[in-house]
Structure formats: C-alpha cells, structure tokens
Write a structure and sequence with these properties.
The chain is α/β, with parallel strands linked by helices and about 210 residues long. It has nine helices and eight strands. Helix content is about 45%, strand content about 15%. It has an eight-stranded parallel β-barrel, surrounded by five helices. Helix 1 packs parallel to helix 2. The structure holds the ligand Cc1ncc(COP(=O)(O)OP(=O)(O)O)c(N)n1, ligand 3NM and magnesium ion. Pfam families: TMP-TENI.
Amino acid sequence: MYNKLQYISQGNSIEAQLYNIHQALDNGCDWVQMRFKNQTSKNSFALAEAVKFLCEEYLANFIINDNVYLAQQIAADGVHLGLSDTKIDDARAILGNTKIIGATANTFEDITTHIKNGCDYIGLGPFQFTTTKEKLSPILGLEGYHEIMQKIKNHNLEIPIYAIGGITLENVDQLIETGIHGIAVSGIITKSPEKGKLITQLNEKLYANVII
Ligand SMILES: Cc1ncc(COP(=O)(O)OP(=O)(O)O)c(N)n1
Ligand SMILES: Cc1nc(C(=O)O)sc1CCOP(=O)(O)O
Ligand SMILES: [Mg+2]
C-alpha cells in the first residue's frame, strides 16, 4: 500500500528546500515529492542527491516532479507527471516497471487515460484555490471529488487517488469520505509552526480506518 501523505516540497533555494524537506521528514512525513521549478540542471541534481540521502535515512519514499531523467539518474523511487509533462509510457520506458509513476488528473477522463497508460497513482485536483501552483485547472471542490470517485467505483477502477490543492487539516475527513486513498500537500506543512502536531493529526485521520 502506498503511503497516504505526500509532502510536495517548497523553497526557492537548495537550502530552503532541504530545510523544508528535512523538517517534514523529521516530523513524520514518509513520502516526499521534490518540486523545484525553473532551476538549472546542476541545482536540481544537487538537491535531488541530498534529498535522496535524507529520504533513505528516514525510510521515506522519494519521487521527483516533472523530471524523468533526473529520477532515473539518481535512482529515485519515481516521478510525478502532469498533463503537459512527459507521457507516461515514455517515462515507463525510461524508468522501468519497478518505479512509481504518478499522474495529474482533473477529470474522470484524465484518470481512465492515465490508467490505460500504466500510471501507479493519480493526483486529482485542485480541490480548492492555492497559490502554490500557477495556472490551476478548474477547481473540483468536494462535489467534484464525490462525482469523480463515484464514477471510479461504478467502473470498478482501482488506483490510489490523492487529493491535492489547497488542502487543510479541516478538509481531510470530508475528502476521505469521498473514497480517496490519500492527500498530497505542500503549503500547510511548509508553513505550519507546529509540524509534528499537524503531521500526526493528518496521519491519524488518513490511517484511522486502516487495518494492519
Ligand atoms: C500528487 C501530485 N498531484 C498533482 C501534481 C501537479 O502536477 P503538474 O500538473 O505537473 O503540476 P506541477 O506540480 O508540475 O506544477 C503534483 N505535482 N503532485
Ligand atoms: C502542485 C499542485 N498541483 C495541483 C493540481 O491541482 O494539480 S495543486 C498543487 C499545489 C499543492 O500545494 P498546496 O497544498 O500548497 O496547495
Ligand atoms: Mg508537472
């Protein structure tokens, strides 16, 4: 089973990214997506190497946003690809079958296409407005999640769905009720002054009904 809480990294420098990722790991996150936009290859590689080392130390999953070749180069656990990024089958050909490939969806049709193309999980969003990402797709809201999750059930599709976009602690129970597998969050963790408490609360909610 994939972990249910994915932290998407933030920070405008290598140092800021590393600080934020280290804090998230140290306070209980076990899945990091390194999202470091508009950087030189040298900077991205340097950060990725350091994050890989950290994630190994904390036994956390480590995937990279957008950059399939970087994920291959540093042997990350996988990659997350958006609707305008590298195609899933091309990424699979590069990374092989053992790596995680996540894909962004905004509609039920996006999800069925991604499943056909062999992705491992879906990031479905945006749930609500967020300043973390520019050029957001149409906001889904709770109603959008209910509709799409219902269609997934009706078509007997099985793939982990992660809600994403402006999610706060207060949204998590209602999102879980729609049938999502987990959440991918950035701002609430980066900005939290009490990361340990927040991540514990998020994990308690996300794993409340999991029988081990
Ligand atoms: C888990 C997860 N879901 C969605 C996204 C968004 O990916 P994308 O649409 O490619 O946008 P950028 O993150 O690249 O700006 C994500 N990163 N992670
Ligand atoms: C990276 C990303 N992708 C989104 C999408 O809808 O595809 S929303 C988003 C931002 C997630 O960060 P936060 O938790 O700070 O809103
Ligand atoms: Mg992308």
